[in-house]
Amino acid sequence: MRLHWHRTDLRPSDNLALVSPDDSEEPRSSGSRPPAGDDPILPVYVFDPKILDHAAPPRVAFVLDSLAALREWYRDRESDLLVVRGEAPAELARLADDYGVDTVSWAQAYSGLGRRRDDRVADHLNEMGVETRIVHDHLLHEPGSITTNAGEPYSVYSYFWKKWKDREKRGSVPGPGADRLADPPHDTPIPTLDDLGFDRPEAEIPPGGYMEARHRLNDFCSDDIYRYEDARDDPAANATSRLSPHLTHGTVGIRTVHDRVVRARETAPNDATREAVETFRGELAWREFYHHVLYFNPEVVTENYRDYENPIEWRDDPEALQAWKDGETGYPIVDAGMRQLRAEAYMHNRVRMIVASFLTKDLLIDWREGYDWFRRNLVDHNPANDNGGWQWAASTGTDAQPYFRIFNPMTQGERHDPDAEYIREYVPELRGVDADLIHDWHDLSPTQRRRTAPDYPAPIVEHSERREQALAMFERARGEDD
Ligand SMILES: Cc1cc2nc3c(=O)[nH]c(=O)nc-3n(C[C@H](O)[C@H](O)[C@H](O)COP(=O)(O)OP(=O)(O)OC[C@H]3O[C@@H](n4cnc5c(N)ncnc54)[C@H](O)[C@@H]3O)c2cc1C
């Protein structure tokens, strides 16, 4: 018997660790089923309190939904998903003992914390004589497979992309056949949020599950992908894939996504739409780039990637931080983004960049505060992308925004939401206000503001002053202040 430990691979198909834990990583054509071995597979999900310590209601809600869908898939095949609670090493060891398991398989984790935990689990199982098979599944190209000619991991995305885009990629693999699955003798219910000690999320969480992921992928690849180049920076257009929770929690396999995207490229009607598909592929490469960065630099979750001569003198300003979290900064595009996060546990990428820049370069608050807020509120939070995004905006990361290039939140709003459609959707106090006035909010007099939108706050800081202070803060950190 082989126990398969589902974690961020909440899907039955295109799951390399589930189907074929000991299969090689050689690229193969899409759709061919790798050899599966003879052991029947017993699937399990473990709610480990140590892992749940790092979780938050939006992500747990999405996981519960996705587990229900995955369990149905197994049940439709006369099998079942075991769902247990307790520390993973002890629970897996107990199940291995109860069911006469020879091998436990799972997909490789890439964060430092995840890898340390997996080592502990593997040691514990190996000591009992149970084999462990840990398979790269989450990325098209695993860490260490795309390096500089000197064999070093890339720290500049554009060079990484040049190698990534033309490298042969493995195609998706089908799920295990029903004849491969074991049937556990008793039901194990999926706990509720309450059982696990989580509140109901304030936000509306998108539906989880592998079928939902498949629909979203197909919808996007038949339509919006072709306007991705032009519309991806327009938050009101809502033209991005919204696949991020699915990629984070593994309700879709990355090979399935890539295969479908390549098909969209093959059927693109012209060069411009082909280019749009390629731009989207570039985002998948960013995801892989940041996972590689995290793998080789696990400390980036708490430390700056980039060394500065002196510590950056971030401000301790709880009031400003709270205004940022509440979407009450008086900068409409920032507030719209922060309120989208509260309402949907999601925020558009362009707006993530704007709010992250605002926190670090206008409020001069440490990126770790923002990362922590995103970690608790995003349904798609994963340490690699979240940390990559924050350190990019804070000018502390790999291939980051240079410290002297500081987003102006008014011009960002005007450029990317010219009709203030996105702003009005999330900031009801500004509904009915002209786009021009919204984009000029910063320059209106107190009387004009009172007349225009009495319930919306005045800007909590002056951007031009803060810009100068941010430059000085970074110059001191660089040792260039005299
Ligand atoms: C401060 C900040 C924090 C972020 N935190 C996260 C996070 O916790 N989880 C997360 O998945 N993404 C994060 N991102 C990246 C990006 O904002 C989201 O992936 C994207 O908005 C998700 O929406 P989508 O699926 O519609 O994206 P699409 O534009 O449709 O992109 C498709 C997929 O490509 C990947 N991707 C897209 N943009 C990026 C990027 N800049 N970096 C890495 N991967 C990318 C994601 O997996 C995404 O689902 C963050 C970005 C910033 C600036």
Automatic annotation (TrEMBL):
Binds 1 FAD per subunit. Residues 14-41, 171-210 are annotated as: Disordered. InterPro entries: Crypto/Photolyase_FAD-like_sf (IPR036134), Crypto/Photolyase_N_sf (IPR036155), Cryptochr/Photolyase_FAD-bd (IPR005101), Cryptochrome/DNA_photolyase_1 (IPR002081), DNA_photolyase_1_CS_C (IPR018394), DNA_photolyase_N (IPR006050), Rossmann-like_a/b/a_fold (IPR014729). The keyword Lyase applies. Keywords: Chromophore, FAD, Flavoprotein, Lyase. It holds the Pfam family FAD_binding_7. Residues 1-140 form the Photolyase/cryptochrome alpha/beta domain. The lineage of its organism: Archaea, Methanobacteriati, Methanobacteriota, Stenosarchaea group, Halobacteria. GO terms for molecular function: deoxyribodipyrimidine photo-lyase activity; DNA binding; FAD binding. It comes from the Archaea. This is Deoxyribodipyrimidine photo-lyase. The record marks 314, 367, 390 as: Electron transfer via tryptophanyl radical. The keyword Lyase applies. PANTHER family: CRYPTOCHROME (PTHR11455), CRYPTOCHROME CIRCADIAN CLOCK 5 ISOFORM X1 (PTHR11455:SF9). Its cofactor is FAD. One of its GO terms (biological process) is nucleobase-containing compound metabolic process. Belongs to the DNA photolyase family. FAD binds at residues 228, 240-244, 280, 283-290.
